[in-house]
Structures are given as C-alpha cells and as structure tokens.
Amino acid sequence: MKLKGKISLAILIIISFLSVTAHYITKYEPNAINLDCIKTAPGAEHLMGTDNKGRDIFSRILYGGRISIGIALTAAIFSMSIGLIAGVISGYYGGIIDTSIMSFVDFILSFPSLLLAIAISILFPPGIYTVIIAIVAVGWAPFARIIRGYVLTIKESTYIEAAKAIGCSNIRILLKHIIPQCIPLLIVMTGIKMGGYIITEASLSFLGLGAQPPMATWGSMVSAGRIYIASAPWIVFIPGFMIAVTAFCFNILGDELRDKYRIEIK
Amino acid sequence: MFKKILIFILILIGVTFVTFSITKALPGDPVLNLVGERAQPEVIDKLRKELGINKDVFSQYFSYVKLLARGEFGRSYYTNRKVFDDLLKKFPNTLMLSLTAMIIAVPSGMFLGFICAWKKDKWIDKLFSFITLMGLSIPVFWGGLVIMLLFSLKFKLFPPSGTGNFKFIFLPALTLSIPAMSMLSRVTKTTLIDIFGMPYINTARSKGISEIKVNLIHVTKNALIPIITVIGLDFASYINGAVLTETIFGWDGIGRFIMEGILKRDYPVIMGCVIIGTFAFVIINTLVDLIYHFIDPRVSMYEIKG
Hints:
The structure holds two protein chains of two kinds. By secondary structure, chain A is an all-alpha fold. Chain A is built from ten helices and no strands. The longest helix of chain A has 37 residues, at 57-93. Chain B is 77% helix and 0% strand. Chain B has helices spanning 2-25, 30-35, 41-51, 57-69, 83-118, 123-137, 140-154, 166-196, 199-206, 211-233, 235-249, 254-264, 267-295. In chain B, helix 5 (83-118) runs antiparallel to helix 6, helix 8 (166-196) crosses helix 10 (211-233) and helix 11 (235-249) crosses helix 12 (254-264). The chains are: A mainly alpha, B mainly alpha. At the A-B interface, helix 4, helix 5, helix 8, helix 9 and helix 10 of A face helix 1, helix 6, helix 7, helix 11 and helix 12 of B.
C-alpha cells in the first residue's frame, strides 16, 4: 500500500475510534443546550466552538460521526449482501432470470439516485432507517452487476465443472465454490463505494430526510448551521470538513484498491 | 436500441407507479390531495369519476397517468397554486443552471484530464489527480457554502443568493460543476492513457507526424466518443446536485422547490418535482444514447452501459 493509502487508513481509524469512544473523550453532552455560550469561536474550552444553541460542536461531531459512518457501513453491508445474491443468481443461472435481474439493475442505475431517495423518504418517516433504505435501494445494483460479470467468468472454470461432475447440487456449488470466490471482490468494491455512501448520507441528512433533531449527524449540522454562515462560519465549516475528509480518505483507499485489483466500476 | 427504449418506458411506468402508490398511501382523499380542499364540488366529483375510485387499482392507475399527461399534478398544500404551473416556471431556471455548470465543467474537466494523461506520473498529474479526487469527495452543499463564504461574504464579488443574470448564476454553477468536472477529468485521463497505448498512435508517430498533430487529430478524435457519453450520462449528477445547490444559493428552480416541499411535507410538490426530474433525466439519457449511436455507428446500442 502506498503512503497516501496508509495515511488515509490511519485518519479513518482515528475518526472511527474517536466516534466510538466519544463518551470518554468529551465532557459535553452532544445535545446539551447552554444558552450562556452561544456561537463561541473554537478555543480551549470548546475545541471546535459551539453552535447557535450553545451545544459543543466537537462532541456533536463525534456523536454525529457514529451515525454518519454507522449508516454508511450498514448500507454497505446490506447493498453488498443483496448485490451478491442477485449477482450470483443472475450470473449462475443465466437465461430469463439473468435478463430480468440485469434489466432491473439497469433500471435502478439509470435513475437520479437523490430523487429516488426522496421518493422513498415520502413512503417512510424520515430517520436513520429511511436513509439506509434509500442508499441500499440504489446501492445494491452496481454490486449485482460486477458480481454477475465475475460469476460468468468463474462459472466456466475446471473446478466448477469438477464439482458438477461429482454430483454437487447447484446450491452447494453456489455456497461452497462460487460465493467464497466473490468475497475479496466484494470487499474491494465496498471500499470503493464507501466514500459515495458517506456523501449520500450527508446529502439526505442535509435535506432533512435523515436522523431527526436533536440527534446530530454531519449533514444535518451543516444544514442547521447554514443560516449562521456569516456570523459563525465554523458551525457550517467543521461538520462539512469532516464529511469531506472522511469521504476523501475512503476515495483514496478506493482508488488504491481499484488500481491494485484493476476493477472497472462506474 | 430496443432495450434502451424498453428501459425508458419501464422507468416512466415505475416513477408514475411509485408516485401513484404514494398518493394512495397518503392520509386523506387522493382527489382532495390532487385538487386541494378549496376546489369546487363539481370539479371534485368530476375528478373522482375520472380517477375511478370505485374501480380496481389498475384502472385507477391508468386514470392517474391520464391526469398526469394533462398536467394535472395537483395543487400545493400551502400556496394552493397548481404544481404544474410552478414547475413550468422553475424548470427553465434549473436547465439554465445545469447548462452553465456544464459549460464550466466540460472544458476544464477535459483540460485537466488531458494534462494528467500527458504528464502521467509527473508532479502535475499527481497534483491534479489529488484535486479532482477532492472534488469528488466534497459534498456539494458544503462546497457551495464555502464558495459562498469566500466569494460573496468575504470578497463581496457576487451576490450570495437569488435568481437572475450572470452575477447570480456564476456561484451556483461553479459549485455544481466541481463534481462533474472531477469526474470528467478522471474519465478523460483513463481514456487518453488507453489511447496513447494503441498501435495506431505508434504508427502515426513513426510516420513522422508532429506531436501536436498526433494529439489533436488521432488522440482527440478517438477520445471524444467515450467522453461525450460520460458528459451525457453524468447528467444525473447535475440533477442530484441541483437539488442541493439551488437550496443553498436560493436559485428558483425545481431543486429548491423540492427542498421546500420536503420541509413543509407538501406532497404534491415533492411528487411533481420527482416526476419532472426523472422525465427530464430519462429523456436526456435516451437522447445521449441516440447521439452516441449517430457519432459512432460501429458501436451497437447494447454495449452502452446505462
């Protein structure tokens, strides 16, 4: 791994670690309103300043990081699983099943994702689960397409033929021989996609479709703070910066994975 | 080609079906949701007949689509104006914003990509690659706020928000163009690097054609086709981005309209925007495919990845 990748990984580990242990790191409650110190600039007392309600931004960033990264990870796991199942079935069985699944994938991919997410969010009340559903509804499709292509190539290998020859059932071949082969590819793809999930989560939170107040997420912090951009720019700047740094580190990692494994992903 | 049109139709059916089920799922009378509670009783009765509330779901759906085709998108819960009229007024603004963003993004993205491919692995390539990756990582809404903070609040070069002429459009268009530019630059780079390795480029060089001519005629011509596809297919990112950018800069387009709709839970507005946005997107996507087919008849339509 190149130096860039190592640094990115280190930053991501630090951000995740701080978020998970937020409880021990900051003495401020993320949602504790303190009207005595509204819009304090970053300083020794409040590392990243306070917002319009006197809440400590540093602790909101840490607690918000749990939600932002947590949602991205959960969405990745679900997208990966659904994409794996759809892709494997599509590639292995072929024929009409393949055509219908892949047409559906094309359908999903040729849809502006944010509009789809907004449509979904009308059906479900806004919140963490809605964001996850909205991301997964689009996110599984590229996984399915890549996995299908991969299964098509390994389906013809000798060891699959051998497994068939000794009478393995289709289910056994899929579970024992094909799916384990797909795992490394899945992990690489997840790495590539994570940056995008972080941004999507932030965008949905920004639009008010994500976790509801007073719960902090990075996207909703930017959204809530944007009317104070002239008087207290740090309220907007810091959470947005966190989103950008996290997404950037994931994207660097993703790029390195892509170069290393030579995967072409749209 | 056939498959593309099939998907085109599927998407239109899918979108209208989703919005239809939302109309059904919303509390209250779907007819009242469509025309608003202050409509005249005769209108309500007529619509109720047209929608066929008593008939089965499918005929209800067809009547719904017929209503949509007539521009009957319902009325906003708050302003009681016809959503369709507002959409007609706001859509050109969004289109103008997207086009301006495209005018910024396309040349600069291609230029950056060209430099990166030409000076591959030199420091300038590394620098530009770093910048474009950053462009893809910065959330549009935050990038917009930072740009606003710098250009309009600090240096007071441009107005921070509003709809209007060049002065107003520049900042939102710049914001919107950043991710598109970054994407395009990366695609241009990989495309060009592939082409540099092609045998016909070697042939051209060994024939003694000057470096500039090789680049201009042989490389550029062959690179244009995939790049044009990306420009067109990237239109989704403009639509996604417009929702966020317009909100920040107070640009009076469908993006801000949908955001206001979300905040007020004004369902007819949200659904109208989703339908119009998707239609626009799908139509442009199909047009790009047609253009692509026209430019390069060698390629069958099946090979284009949507």
